[in-house]
Amino acid sequence: MNDQIRAVQVGCGPIGCSVMSLAWKRDNIDLIGAIDTDPKLIGKDIGRLLNLDQDTGIIVTDDIAHILTSQKVDVVFHTTGSSLEKIADQLETIMSMGINIVSSCEELSYPHHKNPTLTNRLDAMAKNQRVTILGTGVNPGFLMDIWPLFMTGVCQKVASIRVVRIQDATTRRLPFQKKIGAGLSPEEFEKKIQIGTLRHVGLPESAAMIAAGLGWNIDDMTETIEPVMADEPTSSSFIRVEKGQARGVKQVLIAK
Question: How confident is residue 1, by pLDDT bands cut at 50, 70 and 90?
Fold first, then answer.
C-alpha cells in the first residue's frame, strides 16, 4: 500500500522552492507537479530551481487545471501571496477540484478578524468540497502566536502577553529585504508605508489568534510602522545600505 502524500507546489518563488526542497527529501511526500505564472520559471525542471544534482522530470507549468485534474493530488502547497483577497480565486479553484491546501498566506493564518465574509465563503466551500484549507508558517503560524499560546499552558492566570521578535534580515531572501525597506531613504520608506507595500503582514492575525485562544475579546488594535535607520554603512548579499538609509523596520501592534 502506497501511503505517500501526493503533492503539487503552487508558487515557485523563494518560499515555494524552500517548501519543494523539503518535500523532495521526505519519504512520505511524492512531489508530482509545480505551478507558477512567471515566464522565467515556466518550462524549467525543478531540479534546477532546487540546485539538485539531477533533473527530476517535474517541469514548472502555468496550466493549473491540467496538473490538478490529470492525476490524483492529495494536497497543494500554496505560496503565492500574503493578501487573502488577492489569492482567494486561486484557493477556490484548487478546492473546486477536491484538493486540500496548505498555504503560506499570512492573512490566512487567522482570517476571521479582518475579513469574516470572505473567510466564511472559503470555509463553506471547503466544507462543501470536503477538503481542508490551512494557513500556516513560521510567522504568523508559530513564533508570535502558537508558541506564546502554548507557553500560557503553565500559567494559572494570564493578564497580558507581550511578544517581541528581532530578526537579522541580512541572511534572508531579496524580496524580504525589500519588504522591510532596506536601502530606502526616509521619504521612500514613508511612501511605501502609505501604499501598503512595506510591512510585516500578519501581526493583526497573530494578535487575534492569541486572543481567541485565551477567550479574550479585542475592542481596539493600533499599529505603528517606522524605519530603523543605519548609523553606518552596511550590506547584505543583495543590498547595500548607506548611513541615513533604512536598514529595517520596527512594527508594533497593540491589541486591547
Answer: very low
